[in-house]
Amino acid sequence: MLSFRRHRTLFDAYLQSVELMAGKASENSWVEALIAMDRSQRVFQDFVKPVLNRHNADLSLTNLIFLLSIGSGDVPVNDIVHRGRYVGSNASYAFNTLQKQGYIERRQDPNDRRNGIVTYTKKGSDLVRDIRHVSKSSTKAHRDVCDLLVIFDNHCARLPGGA
Prior knowledge:
- The chain contains seven helices and three strands; from the N terminus they run H-H-H-E-H-H-E-E-H-H.
- It is 64% helix and 10% strand.
- The protein has 163 residues and is mainly α.
- The N and C termini lie far apart (52 Å).
- It has a three-stranded antiparallel beta sheet.
C-alpha cells in the first residue's frame, strides 16, 4: 500500500508532467493540450488505482469521473450533465452503473419529474473522500492547470472560423 506521502509525491509529479507536456508543444495548436489531457486522465487513473483497490472498486475512468463530479448533497442530474457538458444517455448509463455498484442513490426530482437527483451512499462518499485526500497538492500547480483548462474550454466553446 502506498503511503499518503508517496501519493502526494506522485500527484505533484503528475501535475509537473502536465505542465511540461503543455510547455513542450511542438506547434501553436490546442491539439497538443488535448493530447496531454487525454494522457493525463490515464495517468490519474493509475495514480488512484491503489485507492480503488483498497475500496474493491472496479470503476472505469468514465464512471470514476462521473462519481467525482457529483459533489456534495442532493444534486440534480441535469446540473451534472450541464456542468460537465455530458451527453444525457452517457450520464444515464454511468449513473445506472454507479447505482448498481452501490456508490450513489438516485431518485426522481419532486420538482421536475423528468430530472433525477443523485447523492453519494456511504460507500461512494468514502471512496470520493479517499481519492480527494490523496489528490491534494502541496503546490499551486493544480490551480494553474485548472486556470489553463478554463482558457481551453473557452477557446473550444467558440465555433471554428469565428462563425
